[in-house]
Amino acid sequence: MKNTAQRVAGFKDSIFGVMSKLAREHQAVNLGQGFPDFDGPEWLKKIAETKIDQGHGQYAPFMGTPSLRMMVSSYYKSYYQLDYNFESDITITVGATEGLFSTITACVDPGDEVIVLEPFYDSYVASIEMAGGKAVPVTMHAPTFSVTESELEAAASPRSKMIIVNNPHNPTGKVWEKTELEMIVRFAIKHDLLVISDEVYEFLLFDGATHYPLAQFPGMMERTFTISSAGKTFGLTGWKTGWVCAPPKLSHAVRLVHQYVTFSVNTPMQEAVADGLGKLLEYIPTFQKTYCEKRDYFYDGLTKLGFEFPKPKGTYFMMVPIRNKTQKTDVEFAMELVEKRKVAVVPPSAFYLKSNEGQAYLRFCFAKKEETLKAALKNLQGL
Ligand SMILES: Cc1ncc(COP(=O)(O)O)c(C=O)c1O
Questions:
Q1: Phi and psi at residue 373, in whole multiples of 5°?
Q2: May I ask the CATH architecture of the domain 6-41+283-380?
Q3: Is this model's pTM higher than 0.85 or not?
C-alpha cells in the first residue's frame, strides 16, 4: 500500500488530546482543555432550537448567511468603527480554526515565511506547513510576554509573507498594549506583510483592558485578516462558528479556499449566532463578570499555593511559572500533576518552535465551574 502524504508525516497528536486522555485515565480534574465545562447562555440555546424548528435545514450560502454577515459587520462598526461590507468582506467559517486554515492556504506559497509569535495557537504552524510555508518564530518573553522591534526585524527576510498576531493571547492571557501593537504595525507595513489578527478572545477582557483590532491602525485595513469566533464569545465552542473579515480582494482569496474545504457552515447555528450578536451590548458585561470572577478565584488560589505571576488581563488562560516549585520540565511536571495530584494542565512547550522558555510554565484554563476550580486547588494543596 502507498504511504500517506509527507505533508502530515511530521504531525503528532495534539497535546490537548494527549492530556485529556491522561485526565480520563487518572480521573483528574481537567484544566487542560481550553473550553468551558459549562454550557453557553440558555437564551441563545433556545434561539438555536427555534431556528431548527423554523427550518434552516439546507446549505447556507457558501460565504455565510446574510443575517450573520450583516450582524458581524454591524458589531465591528459599533465596537471598533471598522467598516466591513457584509457582501464582500466577511466570510463565515467552521470556527476560527477553519478561518485560519483557509486564510493561510489562500496566502502562503511554498517557501514563503510566516512570522509567528511564540507561544502560539498550535494550528498556525500546522496550517503554514500544510501550505508548504515556513513558520519563523519570535519569542514573547516573560513576565510581560513582550517582543522587541529588533527581534521582529531579525525574523524578517525577503521571503517573509505574513505575520500572525493573537490578541488577547492564548496561552499567556496577555492583552497587547496599544504601543506594542503600533510597533507590530510599523514592522508589518515596513515589510509589506499580510497580517492575520486572531482576535477570538476579543471580549474576554478584565480590569478595564481595551482591545484594539489591528485593522484599526492606519495602513492595516488593506493587509489584515481579522478572525474571530462565536464559540469563544458565547462560551459555545462546540458551535464552531467563526469569521474572517478582510477587504474584498483578500476575502475573495479566502472564499476560494473555503468553498472547497467546507463549502458552507451549519445554517441554524449561523442564524442563532446572528441573533446572539444582536444582543452583545446586554450580554458582554455579564459574560466578562462571570469570567473575571473565575479568574480572581483561581488566581487567588494559585497565589496562596505559592505560584507567583502577574494577573492575566484577558482570555481564560493562565501561564503559570513553575520554577519556584520544581526543576522538572513542563511536560514532566504536567505528568506528575495528572498522575499524583489528579489535575490535568497543558505543558506549553508544545506552543514553541525555538525557545525552551515554555518548559518553565504550565497553562491552566480557568473556564470551569467553581466546583471544578475548587477541586483542582484542593488537589494541588501542599505542592
Ligand atoms: C488563539 C485561538 N485561535 C483560534 C482558536 C479556535 O477557535 P474555534 O474554536 O472557533 O475554531 C482558539 C481555540 O482555542 C484559540 O485559542
A1: -65, -40
A2: Alpha-Beta Complex (3.90)
A3: yes
